[in-house]
Write a structure and sequence with these properties.
There is one protein chain. The chain is α/β, with parallel strands linked by helices. It is built from twelve helices and eight strands. The chain is 48% helix and 13% strand. The chain has an eight-stranded parallel barrel, surrounded by nine helices. The chain starts with 5 loop residues before the first helix and ends in a 9-residue tail after the last helix. The structure holds glyceraldehyde-3-phosphate (G3H), 1,3-dihydroxyacetonephosphate (13P) and zinc ion. Zinc ion binds next to loops.
Length: 321
């Protein structure tokens, strides 16, 4: 089965009111875990590749691994460039056959962000690829310049609803990554902070009022940083801080209902893999066969992905809709 187009996956996800898991791939074990979990759960999936993954694994290895995954499975699989930081990187991925790319120019001023997105969109659309843009900064709840967790400050780090409509129209991007207090990594919030879901609701309403009813939104930084994984890492010699914090599964559920059709998860995969490797080596200090610790690591990532697609993203069972 060939790759399935990101556009087709988005259309079905929006129609079916579920979210696609966009899981980061850096090596064979992560890829196998994701694919096996989604295959067993009958879930469509987006594999995402970052610039860092490309330089770690080599783009050719990643492409061949994904080709292998596609040939041994039956589920719909799309391939996406995560956080492309230049036109050239996006072009390379488009030329390699990625079904979507993200151009992340969110650190640029509004007009410059639009200009760069526009350039990528023009090339991508000529080559049957779709583009994700980002507006606002993924810096986490504690850094918003507006009133804590909620102001519509146009100058702040969060995505402004009216600007979102303008941005989508002028840039031509096919999906939009929003900044609503989300951030990457294992230390997302201080205290009891949450995503600014009221803002997400306003962004969704603004898009609907502008005639963009079924426009796919993207939630980056969607790892939940499960306490049990952090505890396991620390129990077996790790030193993660006491202030780890992730996005609650309830918040992700609401975000999904508000049109986040793509939910990005990387950190939780890293935590699961690290916890299992630490445990295996701690319990078997004489072991030096990598398969003995990579096999349980792959199994742990697989369990995590199964849980996400079944209980959080609700895309399980939708592979053949
Ligand atoms: O958003 C970042 C992703 O977790 C990818 O991380 O750039 O370290 O591969 P990376
Ligand atoms: P996490 O760090 O929360 O897994 O986010 C991953 C991400 O957004 C990749 O683009
Ligand atoms: Zn991201």
């Amino acid at each position: 089965m060939p790759l399935t187009h990101t556009k087709e996956l988005f259309a079905k996800a929006l129609r079916g009111r579920y979210a696609l898991g966009a899981f980061n791939v850096n090596n064979m074990e992560l890829l196998q875990a994701i694919i096996e979990a989604c295959e067993e759960e009958k879930a469509p999936v987006m594999l995402q590749i970052s610039k860092g993954a490309r330089s770690y694994a080599n783009p050719v290895y990643l492409r061949k691994l994904i080709e292998a995954a596609v040939s041994v499975s039956n589920i719909p699989i799309a391939v996406h460039l995560d956080h492309g930081d230049s036109f050239e990187l996006c072009k390379d991925c488009i030329d390699e056959g990625f079904t979507s790319v993200m151009i992340d120019a969110s650190h640029e001023p509004f007009d410059k962000n639009i200009e760069l997105c526009r350039r990528v969109v023009e090339y991508a659309h000529k080559h049957n690829c779709v583009v994700e843009g980002e507006l606002g900064h993924l810096v986490g709840a504690q850094f918003d310049e507006g009133d804590e967790g909620g102001s519509y400050s146009a100058e702040g780090h969060y995505t402004h609803p009216a600007q979102a409509v303008d941005f989508v129209r002028r840039s031509g991007v096919d999906s939009l990554a929003v900044a609503i207090g989300n951030s990457h990594g294992a230390y997302k919030f201080k205290g009891e902070q949450h995503l600014d879901l009221e803002r997400l609701k306003s962004i969704k309403s603004a898009l609907m009022e502008a005639g963009l009813e079924d426009y796919p939104l993207v939630l980056h930084g969607a790892s939940s940083v499960p306490k049990e994984l952090v505890e396991e890492i620390n129990k077996f010699g790790g030193k993660m801080g006491a202030d780890t914090a992730g996005v609650s599964e309830v918040d992700i559920e609401v975000a999904r209902r508000l049109g986040c059709a793509k939910v990005n998860i990387d950190t939780d995969l890293r935590l699961a893999m690290t916890a299992a490797i630490r445990k295996a080596l701690w319990e078997n200090p004489k072991e030096f066969d990598p398969r003995k610790y990579l096999a349980p690591a792959r199994e742990k990532v697989k369990d995590l992905v199964r849980h996400k697609v079944r209980n959080v993203l609700c895309c399980a069972g939708h592979a053949f809709d």
